[in-house]
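Weekly modeling sync, notes
Attendees: AB, CL, MP (scribe)

Item 1: holo prediction request
CL wants a bound-state model with adenosine-5'-diphosphate before deciding which constructs to order. AB pointed out that an apo prediction alone won't tell us much about the pocket. Agreed to run with the ligand included and paste results into these notes for async review.

Input as submitted:
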Amino acid sequence: MISVTGARKSYGNFAALDDVTLDIPAGTLTALLGPSGSGKSTLLRSIAGLERLDAGSIVIGGQDVTQVAPQKRGIGFVFQHYAAFKHMTVRDNVGFGLSIRKRPKAEIARKVDDLLEIVGLDGFQHRYPAQLSGGQRQRMALARALAVDPEVLLLDEPFGALDAKVRADLRQWLRRLHDEVHVTTVLVTHDQEEALDVADRIAVLNKGRIEQVGDPVALYDRPANDFVMSFLGSVARLGGQLVRPHDIALHRSRERAQSLDARVGGSPGVIEAVVERVVRLGFEVRVDLRADSGERFAAQVTRAEADALDLRVGETVYARATQGPDVTETEPALAI
Amino acid sequence: MKTSTATRLGLRTVALGYLVVLLAVPIVLILWRTLGEGVGAFLESVRTPAAISALNLSLLIVAIVVPLNVVFGVATALALVRGRFRGRGLVQAVVDLPFAVSPIVVGVSLILLWGAGGWLGGVEKLGFKVIFGLPGMVIATLFVTLPFVVREVEPVLHEIGTDQEQAAATLGASSAQTFWRITLPAIRWGLTYGVVLTVARALGEFGAVIMVSSGFPGVSQTLTLLVHSRYIDDHNTYGAYAAATLLMGLAVVTLLLMTLLDRKRST
Amino acid sequence: MTATTATARRDDTMVSSLPPRPTPQRQFSARPLGVGLVGLWLSVIVLLPLAALTVTSFGDGVSGFWDAVTAPVALASLAVTVGLAAVVALLNAAMGTLIAWVLVRDDFPGKRVVNALIDLPFALPTIVASIVLLSLYGPNSPVHVHLNATRPGLVVALAFVTLPFVVRSVQPVLIEVDREVEEASASLGASNWTTFRRVVLPTLAPAIISGTGLAFARAIGEYGSVVLIGGNIPRRTQVASQYIQQQIEIDRPVNAAAVSVALLVIAFLTLFVLRVAAGRSRRREEESS
Ligand SMILES: Nc1ncnc2c1ncn2[C@@H]1O[C@H](COP(=O)(O)OP(=O)(O)O)[C@@H](O)[C@H]1O
Ligand SMILES: [Mg+2]
């Protein structure tokens, strides 16, 4: 369990952390999500002791560590750019923390080999970091952090420097690893997909403040505000309300749209719009629309729906929201 | 730019001709004049008591100067790269100063500071003879070699950043452990390069050292002073050539090391 | 893409294109003790001697300083020094650039040896340079070129010790130069000379300027390489460093200090002016590209 209370940190006049309070339950994988510059790294580094808070306190596992040096916090830290010890072999990298703790050589060797097997780097013991790919380096860094049996594992955009495919693989792998070792993990990311994919809990940061904390489904479906809503996925502005593009239904008939819309509460109403473009993205179809107010938005429908509607550029359709932060569906309705 | 063959050959001829007249011919000539008398004569000339004592003194100065430059050079580089203190700009400027100061001016300054009647001339009465003694030659050499280690280590420290050091800290390493096990290995080639430059300059320094040395053969002559005094005072041209050849040999070793390290450093 | 559709990973490119930001931490910064020791070290080795020099140079007041610097022989030695250094600097600018060009663009057997040889003057003790040049151009010159105790002799000695400066500052820039720009210029009908003058030279200018400046500063203070070949003839071949050394020998520390300070000021001014000039031409280069 990590508790951050009233954390503040400024660089000159700029508040990187502005009164942040956050509890991270033991054994969870929590993502700190937010745009670049929102203070995610500052918060994570403060938990690690790499950054000193101006005010506030940090408690790890019941012990107040606010004034404790990073060496003594019982943490493992993984850096975005690996921070591999370039002049050491993979084995020495992973064994570094143990050799600092003066463990017997045999024990270190055994533990390092075990960890390398877990992270899939078996047989790479004698390579240097320069001889590894980015993904392998990051797995080595992870093994290095895990070697000292940290109470908490802190990862600062660990996959940010990797290409999309490797990133997705490592993400899955991290999730499985966490399910096995259950070490309390905090993952910093600016990628909502990554956060939604691996985390048990997500804390959304913006401008040094926590906007919302919760499990992925809650955040996606019930965002506390427009910022969280738009940061967690695509949004469209429909009659002044933010809704997800896949929560927009399109109809040929105004009457049909209106009758269905009447069944949901708090909806923005039925919006008349002109089709500007129809883009088929595999199994789904994006329809770019322009409302008569001039506002542009996109709706996302299934291929079957699109085929049924038989949309052509320049035609008029009627759009309504089926779900949204303010929209409450009273009874499920078919889209058409 | 596609140059015609004629232009290329012309440019090449001018460049190489310049280097031949300026560098190659004089050096070959002196080697020929030294070794033309036979290797025996050369060895005899560089094995006189005065020559051996000069070599020993030069090496002694190197042995004192290099460790001091390594310790303070690395500390200065660390302060410049990692430190946030007022006066960083000033420190940067002071580190470059020795490059802009004439060796003779270095000698004069040291005489005026440490010599009889100087600000710190009092140490002489305490039995610490700086000017016309070994300390003077050491300090003069320290002055002229001060920038090398700093300027070679600084960019390396910049490049490695603090990530590795922070990683070591999160793994439990104390600052001392981090320095010895992470920082020092990371800067080792840059540091070695700086040391090679320091050694070369320390062996070769002449102007600053001659100002603060009493220059007694066999006592307070370095190798460079030996070359000078053999040529000027003893009219022993051959002896001067021989000593110069010895120094040249050391310079070539330096050069080889530099070329070798340059490749190491860039990997 | 619709205007209101927010996309994921909005700052992805920004993040990956930024280098890891060096965040100085208290526990990783130099401790005050370390900074203090470094300051003390630099003060004792570098600053204090130069302070003693400066204070001594004004030992007889400002007029004493002025008299010492403007004494005819002193002034002459300064003039000889600056004049020779200027000649050598220009020689270096031309020959250094040419040599760098040949080393980068040309190819011939033994190029690597020649390239390594360039650094020899830096590795070679200056007094050895003096001896080496004397053996060829001195009293028993095998080619009967006697430059002993002449200004051309000084130019040769100074050119020898300053050779690497321009070559080594131009070479890396020349390697990095975008060859396509030259090809573009040629395709537009420019002759080689025009291309060099209008396209290549402006790119090399900052490097040439800074290399030349370093060579000039070095030449101004040089002693070891000129001490044997120069002849030390007042008003003709005596350079400032020799004059200063002479003043110390005849126990005129104030004169020695004053001319030393003058020499220092000239060196600093040169380096300062050249830094500004190089900065300006680099900026112009960057703006235009
Ligand atoms: N050492 C520093 N000096 C000055 N500003 C900093 C420093 N570290 C971080 N900041 C600023 O604090 C803000 C938050 O930084 P950071 O926590 O790294 O953001 P994130 O990791 O969310 O991208 C940024 O605007 C950044 O510019
Ligand atoms: Mg960050």
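Recorded for review: The two ends of chain A are 48 Å apart (CA to CA).
Action items: CL to compare against the apo run; MP to circulate these notes.
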